[in-house]
Amino acid sequence: MNLLFLGTGAADWAPEPPRPDYAPGEWRGFTSTLLADCVLVDCGPTVPAALARYGVDPANITDLLITHSHGDHYNPAAIAQLAAHGGLRVYADPMLLPELNAIAGVRATPLLVGQSESVGPLKVMPVCANHHVPRPDEQPYHFVLSEGETTLFYALDGAWLPTETWLAIRRLHFDGIVWDATIGDTEGDFRIFEHNSIAMVRLMRTTLIRQKVLGADAPVWLTHLARTLCSPHAELAAALAPEGLRVTYDGLRESC
Ligand SMILES: [Zn+2]
Ligand SMILES: [Zn+2]
Prior knowledge:
Blueprint: E1 2-7, E2 32-35, E3 39-41, H1 47-53, E4 63-65, H2 76-83, E5 88-92, H3 97-101, E6 106-110, E7 117-119, E8 122-128, E9 141-147, E10 150-155, H4 163-169, E11 176-180, H5 198-210, E12 220-223, H6 233-240, E13 245-247, E14 253-255
Parallel strand pairs: 3-4, 4-5, 5-6, 10-11, 11-12, 12-13
Antiparallel strand pairs: 1-2, 1-14, 2-3, 7-8, 8-9, 9-10
Bound molecules: zinc ion (2 copies).
Residues 10-11, 70, 72-73, 157, 224 line the site of one zinc ion.
């Protein structure tokens, strides 16, 4: 499965365009990832410019998955821009469907926990994320995404996996994980109750490997990095590379 990290930042980055001389990770757009060249996960306000910057024709994006409705992941104006290029299928919590269907060119489909959907070339199963949203009836999601024999776990925004999510994934095998690492290498921040620090990722990863849900060498990509909580990119990436944790940056292309 091809991955293009269009944005890798948490909500505390300024949504201004980067200068051309920025080094990788010096500026981050809001987290959004293009999978299999045609399925976008989340669409915040920095997505349209990122598509242009990294040479993606918006007309190639046929499907959009929404993890949750925080403004860095869900921006109706940016979704409308995408949908203007030949229409867009959007998959989201049922709470969001009325406003999505009001956007010209959007055909919205509800996502429900544990119910698999065919989304472009992918099969997608939503599971519960440990994350807080202000809309009381909305369920934030992580996604189990399969393309042929390859399965990717897309786990953001969220902190420790809820027990019901562990029960849903414990017999699966992941070839890679894209993981919330908002808190980075900071200790003592209150946001660990709805986002991961790197120490939390480390503990969960070790458990998933021991329980044979994740291959020992499977890539783990860290994204949704907070401007105010993470060490500078180059320093963090170099420190984590030996243990196989990959710190993402905007424009990074990978596959699994
Ligand atoms: Zn977020
Ligand atoms: Zn969020």
